[in-house]
């Protein structure tokens, strides 16, 4: 007759208790009759069989009510021994150390563009928990004509960020699924990336689902005669969708200029003396314009960051390649004015509504239309000859560069537009 398992367990523990109680010594379980080792409460000896712990899945293990500290099981889900330490179940005992990807850390770079080969901006980053110093290769599947990969050597343990570079050319505008795999690891991670068609502006990319700051290829005039160009897009500040139209080491004049490659960077290396006029097909008389500046090239934040909404400023400032032909709030408020737009100090969060006059009754952007030593804006102060330490001065005043509350240096100036 076969006894139920619960009765067998009861009889086994009853036997151990009975023997231990009667002999008040350690218990030896073996076929030779040998005594137990003095250091062991129970000493099991065999050369033909093993000690079999309770075997269960992770779900069954987690269903054990109030597990005792030191309780051991064999986890069938992970194929390993585990014990309860009084608060949680241990990692697998005896498992070899290995490197593992942290799937929750995945970050995708700029969206790839249909018909264009992927660049450094089209990337995937992921954190790897490094326990073993070794070489690594992380790859994805190929989808829609493109894929991602990275390889190298881990030089230190801990969390290391790996950047996968893209290769190939997307063939269709769609969302593509990618699975990341790493040599020596059974872990796989999944992410989705949307290949997009060339958009006319950063705001259009934002509307199409691109939310990462970086370089994008834009085509403001669409089927017109101008070729697409690469520009830096700020997709995260003040609602995002800002297209960079001026980027210069040093203050520049209020005039238009052709496209240049430093419109892809926030660390310009030369004076670019003007504002790119290529966004005029997209930007009308009621567009947003933003003035940013910083004192240090490599800084990741701005010292001045002012936005002006639903105004005519961009078409005005790019109407001519000649500074003398453009009049921007000149002559102490007695010259050509361009409205009282709503505005925001992005750094402080302060806002002023449309129709709110500057605190001295006007903004002065330059002394006279042809003054090449003047081109400045301010949040609520007068601009030219105003309070120089209020932290919101941008541009050049009588040949002196102004970046927030500092003057007289060579600073880094930027203008953005959003239709």
Please write out the topology:
Elements: H1 5-23, E1 27-29, E2 42-44, E3 55-56, H2 58-62, E4 72-75, E5 80-83, E6 100-108, E7 123-130, E8 135-140, E9 146-153, E10 158-168, E11 174-182, E12 188-195, H3 202-207, E13 214-218, E14 229-234, E15 242-249, E16 256-257, E17 275-276, E18 287-294, E19 304-311, H4 313-317, E20 343-345, E21 351-352, E22 375-377, E23 393-397, E24 400-404, E25 406-407, E26 412-418
Parallel strand pairs: 1-2, 3-4, 16-17
Antiparallel strand pairs: 4-5, 6-7, 7-10, 8-9, 8-11, 9-10, 11-12, 13-14, 14-15, 15-26, 18-19, 18-26, 19-20, 20-21, 22-23, 23-24, 24-25
Give a description of the structure.
- The strands form 6 sheets. An 8-stranded antiparallel sheet has the order 13-14-15-26-18-19-20-21. A 7-stranded antiparallel sheet has the order 6-7-10-9-8-11-12, with no helix packed on it. Strands 22-23-24-25 form a 4-stranded antiparallel sheet, with no helix packed on it.
- It is built from 4 helices and 26 strands.
- It is mainly beta and 419 residues long.
- The N and C termini lie far apart (86 Å).
- It folds into 3 domains: 79 residues, no CATH class; 96 residues, Sandwich (Immunoglobulin-like); 217 residues, no CATH class.
- The chain is elongated and about 115 Å long.
- Strand 20 and strand 21 form a beta hairpin.
Compressed to H and E, one letter per element, the order equals HEEEHEEEEEEEEEHEEEEEEEHEEEEEEE
CA-CA gap between termini? 86 Å
Classify the helix fraction into a percent range: under 10%
Total domains, how many?
Answer: 3
Mean residue pLDDT: 91
Parts with pLDDT < 50 across at least 5 consecutive residues = 1-24
């Amino acid at each position: 007759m076969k006894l139920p398992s619960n009765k067998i367990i009861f009889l086994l523990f009853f036997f151990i208790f009975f023997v231990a109680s009667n002999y008040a010594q350690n218990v030896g379980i073996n076929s030779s009759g040998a005594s137990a080792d003095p250091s062991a409460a129970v000493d099991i000896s065999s050369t033909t069989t093993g000690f079999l712990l309770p075997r269960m899945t992770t779900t069954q293990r987690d269903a054990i009510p109030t597990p005792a500290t030191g309780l051991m099981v064999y986890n069938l889900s992970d194929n390993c021994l585990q014990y309860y330490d009084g608060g949680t179940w241990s990692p697998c005992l005896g498992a070899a150390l290995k490197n593992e990807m942290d799937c929750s850390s995945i970050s995708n770079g700029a969206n790839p563009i249909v018909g264009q080969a992927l660049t450094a901006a089209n990337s995937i980053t992921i954190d790897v928990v490094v326990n073993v110093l070794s070489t690594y290769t992380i790859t994805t599947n190929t989808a829609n004509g493109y894929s991602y990969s990275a390889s190298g050597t881990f030089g230190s343990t801990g969390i290391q960020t790996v950047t996968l570079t893209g290769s190939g050319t997307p063939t269709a505008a769609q969302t593509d699924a990618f699975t990341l795999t790493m040599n020596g690891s059974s872990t796989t991670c999944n992410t989705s990336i949307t290949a997009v068609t060339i958009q006319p502006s950063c705001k259009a990319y934002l509307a199409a689902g691109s939310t990462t700051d970086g370089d994008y290829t834009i085509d403001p005039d669409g089927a017109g005669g101008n070729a697409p160009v690469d520009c830096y897009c700020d997709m995260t500040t003040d609602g995002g969708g800002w297209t960079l139209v001026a980027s210069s080491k040093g203050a520049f004049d209020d005039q238009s200029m052709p496209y240049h490659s430093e419109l892809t960077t926030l660390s310009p290396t030369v004076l670019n003396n003007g504002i790119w006029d290529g966004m005029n097909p997209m930007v009308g008389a009621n567009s947003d314009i933003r003035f940013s500046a910083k004192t240090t090239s490599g800084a990741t934040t701005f010292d001045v960051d002012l936005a002006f909404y639903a105004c005519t400023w961009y078409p005005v400032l790019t109407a001519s390649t000649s500074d003398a032909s453009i009049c921007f709030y000149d002559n102490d408020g007695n010259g050509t004015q361009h409205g009282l737009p709503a505005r925001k100090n992005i750094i402080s969060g302060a806002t002023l509504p449309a129709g709110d006059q500057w605190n001295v009754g006007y903004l002065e952007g330059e002394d006279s239309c042809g003054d090449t030593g003047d081109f400045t804006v301010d949040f609520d102060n007068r601009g030219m000859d105003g309070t120089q330490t209020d932290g919101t001065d941008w541009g050049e005043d009588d040949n002196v560069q102004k970046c927030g509350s500092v003057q007289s240096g060579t600073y880094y100036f930027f203008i953005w537009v959003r239709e």
